[in-house]
Amino acid sequence: MIWQLDDELWFPNPRWGEDDGLVAIGGDLSPERLLLAYSKGFFPWYAFHVDKEPHWYCPLRRYVIFPQEIHVSHSMKQLLRQHKYVVTVNQDFEGVINGCSKAQGRNDDVRAWLGPDIIEAYTRLHRLGYATSVEVWEEDSAMSPMGPISPMGPMGPMSPMGPMRRLVGGLYGVTLRDAFFGESMFSLAPNASKVALIHLARAMQATGGPFIDCQFETSLFKSMGGRHISYDTYMKLLTH
Predict the structure, then answer these.
(1) Higher per-residue pLDDT: 110 or 164
(2) For residue 153, pLDDT beyond 60
């Protein structure tokens, strides 16, 4: 069964939803509704080129990474020791969410979900302190005869920390009750998104965050220690 939401702030029991996790359609992307959604395990996901209303999902088999279980391969450990990248938090949220939207031409796909409405809604959440970005920067020594390359180089905008770093990857998501609800990640340089995820997991280990919600299983998340848990376990961890 798929429920039609209205102007009231509510979500139905996710156990009444479809097998793929779709439970409801409609409503809006206001901060109040988004925070209520995440507190109950829901998230919006819809093809913005096609659908005119938000679609709300709440899979009953949740794919998560527990921060203490993050798997760091030997090759990733070597990469981290090289200090090839600089990692920051909340230094360029808009750069990250736009990177997630446009990397590899994602926003041109008819199934693309990270459109203008989603970008506006999560940027608003970030300004309210409920959405977080992890940025991965690469040192850029490329110089033209007239000085540094353009601030909008081929791999993204220059870092606000200095003119010689450019954004090459990152991730963003919602932060609520010490948990992190991952929304998207991107990489314009080898393993940049993995570096961001490892940094996030290690930071959450230090603060006692319960889990990183990956929403759905992917080969990348599986390789980095992700696993399924039940919705009941998920909500127990979130509410405690």
Answers:
(1) 110
(2) no
